[in-house]
Design goal:
alpha/beta; four-stranded antiparallel beta sheet; three-stranded parallel beta sheet; 9 helices; 7 strands; globular; binds S-adenosylmethionine
Length: 225
């Protein structure tokens, strides 16, 4: 419990010597996290800019990115509850993590949830929208995954890691699921090739499943797979 508290607050870099030797678990200190994030400062302040922390521990990088994004949603959207909720949900949905130790996965989800909840409840003190809370929790469950970032599978090696992309379309949220394996493969495109701004061949991954766009408050009702 003591260890969990320390790691949740981000002020302890090591939980146990055994975990260091078994999993290389040494958390990055806040100062280094912030210095590294400052290298891509503009992206950390862009609400829908996506980040994947592939061995996320309890989320030291993801937590700081979320805090930065929430400064922006507060600044620009807190005048309207609906707008704040939508853009904050997009900020949460832009963060992805993979971690091989299950307790870290839980801690990371909890930590991001508490950062969100603290800010949300300080801005909207009257009532908490239960559907909204459930949708945020659902996204954290889908985005912060228990997995092996080397094999790109679940730790038991049974299933591929599947991430959901959440995109805002006319105020609705569309979900598309991709295997991480497919996202990382630099497959050539079928048909005429496209090129990125940097002149590299563009790669368009193929979703394994697409969902119709739905209202952001209804995301929790997506059937699990
Ligand atoms: C050096 S710590 C870094 C944690 C976090 N990214 C940070 O900077 O504070 C490495 C983390 O990777 C996890 N890990 C080790 N091997 C992994 C693998 N194959 N797939 C996913 N996570 C892994 C460990 O459990 C540990 O939490």
């Amino acid at each position: 419990m003591e260890d969990t508290k320390k790691s949740l607050s981000g002020d302890s870099q090591i939980k146990s010597k055994e975990r260091v030797s078994t999993h290389g678990e040494v958390f990055t200190a806040d100062r280094e996290v912030n210095a590294m994030l400052d290298l891509v400062k503009q992206e950390t302040e862009r609400i829908d800019s996506r980040f994947l922390e592939p061995a996320c521990g309890n989320g030291n990088f993801l937590a700081k990115i979320l805090e930065r994004k929430l400064v922006i949603t507060k600044k620009f959207y807190s005048h309207s509850r609906a707008e704040y909720e939508l853009f904050t949900l997009i900020a949460v949905a832009s963060l992805y993590g993979i971690e091989i130790q299950e307790d870290n996965v839980e801690e990371c989800r909890e930590r991001l949830y508490h950062i969100f909840l603290q800010e949300y409840s300080s801005l909207f003190t009257d009532t908490i929208n239960k559907e909204y809370i459930s949708s945020i929790q659902y996204i954290l469950k889908r985005n912060i995954l228990w997995g092996d970032a080397l094999t790109l599978q679940t730790p038991d090696g049974v299933k591929p890691i599947i991430f959901s992309e959440w995109s805002a379309i006319n105020g609705l949220i569309k979900r598309r699921d991709f295997t991480l394996d497919n996202l990382l493969k630099n497959q050539p495109m079928e048909g005429p090739n496209l090129f990125s701004d940097l002149g590299e061949e563009a790669f368009i991954p193929t979703p394994i499943k697409e969902y119709p766009p739905i209202h952001y408050l209804k995301i929790y009702s997506h059937a699990d797979n």
